[in-house]
Design a protein that fits this description.
globular; alpha/beta; 179 residues
Length: 179
């Protein structure tokens, strides 16, 4: 019984990460965008929970493997200070206001694409013409995808958190390995 469940789980995941022409185009756009950032600016990664852990992982990989400057907002003191002062739903937006420099690129990772703090940060990026790369899952028309419809937006067609998060990490590492 467990063998069949594990097989089906893995089979569904492997079908998610089969890259199609749409993803190849987005991967190429992402590589080109990040190469431009490399010269003078930085990438800013934001996410909640498992997505925040992905942000931590890839910021180190970027710096180590490509020498591209990257930061994430995962320090407990930053999160608690800004959440206390601006409320949880606005802390990411307010952190972006403090850390963003013209020419930076923001990468937002969110399984659902619906968290209020993520949406407020994405809207700030859109309203301030900040380059944005987004990764989401669950519903195709989630709020993050709708906000970033003209930008570079990856979407994973799954409602399983671990599938979405693993696919996001796979896609980002694919981009890093081709810079």
């Amino acid at each position: 019984m467990i063998k069949k469940k594990v097989f089906n789980y893995n089979y569904r995941f492997l079908n998610l990460i089969k890259l199609n022409d749409f993803n190849y185009k987005l991967i190429n756009k992402s590589i080109n965008k990040i190469k431009k950032i490399k010269k003078t600016n930085k990438l800013i990664f934001i996410g909640n929970g498992g997505s925040a852990a992905i942000c931590s992982h890839v910021t180190v990989d970027l710096l180590k493997n490509t020498k591209i400057k990257a930061i994430n907002f995962n320090d407990a003191d930053l999160i608690t200070c800004f959440s206390n002062d601006f409320s949880h739903q606005f802390w990411m937006r307010e952190a972006l206001k403090k850390y963003y420099v013209k020419g930076d690129c923001v990468v937002i990772i969110s399984s659902s694409g619906e968290s209020k703090n993520i949406i407020n940060a994405a809207n700030w990026c859109k309203n301030n013409k900040v380059e944005l790369i987004s990764f989401s899952g669950f519903k195709k028309n989630n709020k993050l995808n709708l906000i970033n419809k003209k930008g570079i937006g990856f979407w994973v067609d799954s409602k399983t958190y671990n599938h979405v998060e693993t696919a996001h990490l796979f896609l980002i590492l694919t981009i890093i390995d081709h810079i």
